[in-house]
Every structure is written in C-alpha cells, then in structure tokens.
Design goal:
Blueprint (H helix, E strand, L loop, with lengths): L1 E7 L3 E8 L2 E5 L5 H10 L2 E6 L5 H4 L2 H7 L5 E3 L9 E2 L5 E4 L2 E7 L8 E5 L3 E5 L2 E2 L2 E2 L7 H12 L6 E4 L4 H11 L4 H15 L7 E2 H7 L1 H4 L3 H12 L2
Parallel strand pairs: 3-4, 4-5, 5-6, 10-13
Antiparallel strand pairs: 1-2, 2-3, 7-8, 8-9, 9-10, 11-12, 13-14
Length: about 230
C-alpha cells in the first residue's frame, strides 16, 4: 500500500491511498491533481472519503464523480448532499480490504470526523495538524478539546495524515510560547529544511505530536482554549 500526497489550493493535502491498482481519495478540495494521478498510474477509484464539509476539502468531488460516476462517497452528516453513505462515530467501513474506524472530532466544524485505518494511519482533516490543531470555528472548545484527548489515546506509531501543510507556522508559534524547548527547536529546524526543499512535513506520528504539539500537551480545557486563541492571533 502507498499513500500519496497531492498538493492542492494554497496549502491543502489530498491523500490518495493506493492498493492493487485501486485507490481511495481523501478530502479532494480540487479535482485536477487527483484525476492526473489516477490516469498516470491507471488506478480505479474505489471510494472518496470526506472528513468535513468545508469547500477546500470537498470542491473536487463532483468533477471527480463526472469521470468516475460509480464511485461511492463516504462522509459525515454535514456532507450529506455529496454522500453515498453517511458515517457516524463508532462506525467501521471496509474499503480495499482495510478497516476504517470512524470517530467524531468536532470543534473545527460541528460534524467533523476522523478515520483510523487499521490502527495505523489517521486521516484527520482539519481536526489535528502537525504541531497544531484546527481553528475552532464552532466556538465549541469543549468538543475540540475532546477530539484532542481522543487523539492522545491512539498508539504512538499511528501516522498522522492531516489536511494542510501548517507545520512550520505551528512550530514557529510553539517556539514563541516555549523558546527554551529544545525538542520544538530541533523539530522546527528540520521542518524548515524540508520546506526549503519543497518536501512535505507529513505524515507525522501521534508519538511525535505528543512531543512537539502544545495542544496535545494542554492538560485542561482552559489551557487549551487560551492556547488556541493565542494561535488564532499569531
């Protein structure tokens, strides 16, 4: 199995899971890169997965379906207009022989979901980023904090496939909060090198995020909310 990142829009990642000449596309904010990869590699599109309803994660769906009209779309209630099957927390869906466990990770949107594939790969949309987490557009900080607590329960070696390339800015923010934190400083230097080379900083892992992500280190809702609001203003 191979998981391909597709750069989209200004800083989005669309993830394409390839297995035996078939593919699953996660959060296609635009169609062009997806269609090119599928054509170049001669892949059959098995499914589309959506984590939430924001346009930068869904805008490519209809054009992709125009080329692959039989493709099922799996997503939360907030993408019901696009869904073939609507997913809820604690659902499990099998695609390409892989089990995808669904859990609610609201806060960024009211119905945001994340999917854990075979307890190995986490597709978390905008709920979790490397070094950060999603902006809480709903103002439901309790829901976003609960999502963070769920992520902390996952195995350390679970790989994190987030929806945006925000790592460098997140770690710059973390460095201003904890300037003497050597782990964050070293991580920032590595990320800066990767970005100068035009390389992605993802996937991360849950274990790495526990070390560098201040949001996973917040012990209380109050601390989390203050940190998130400070990041909003950064």
């Amino acid at each position: 199995m191979t998981i391909h990142p597709i750069n989209a829009l200004s800083d989005n990642y669309i993830w394409v899971i390839e297995e035996n000449d078939e593919a699953i596309v996660v959060d296609p904010g635009e169609a062009e890169g997806v269609l090119k990869l599928l054509e170049d590699k001669q892949l059959y599109l098995n499914a589309i997965i959506l984590t939430h309803g924001h346009e930068d994660h869904t805008a490519g769906v209809n054009r992709i379906l125009a080329c692959f009209p039989e493709t099922p779309v799996y997503g939360p209630e907030e993408t019901a207009d696009l869904n073939t099957e609507t997913l809820k927390g604690e659902d499990t869906v099998e695609l390409l022989g892989q089990d995808f466990d669904v859990f609610v990770t609201a806060g960024h949107t009211h119905g945001h979901i994340s999917l854990l594939m075979n307890n190995d790969a986490l597709f978390c949309g905008d709920a979790l980023f490397s070094g950060g987490c999603g902006r809480v557009f709903t103002q439901d900080y309790q829901a976003q904090f609960a999502a963070i607590e769920k992520f902390k329960e996952l195995d350390d070696d679970v790989k994190v496939y987030a929806g945006h390339e925000y790592t460098e800015k997140n770690l710059n923010f973390a460095h201003t909060i904890e300037p003497d934190n050597a782990v964050i400083s070293e991580a920032l230097e590595k990320v800066e090198r990767l970005r100068k080379e035009g390389r992605p900083t993802l996937p991360s892992t849950i274990g790495r995020e526990k070390d560098i992500n201040l949001f996973l280190q917040a012990e209380t809702l109050k601390a989390f909310k203050e940190l998130r609001q400070a990041r909003d203003d950064f």
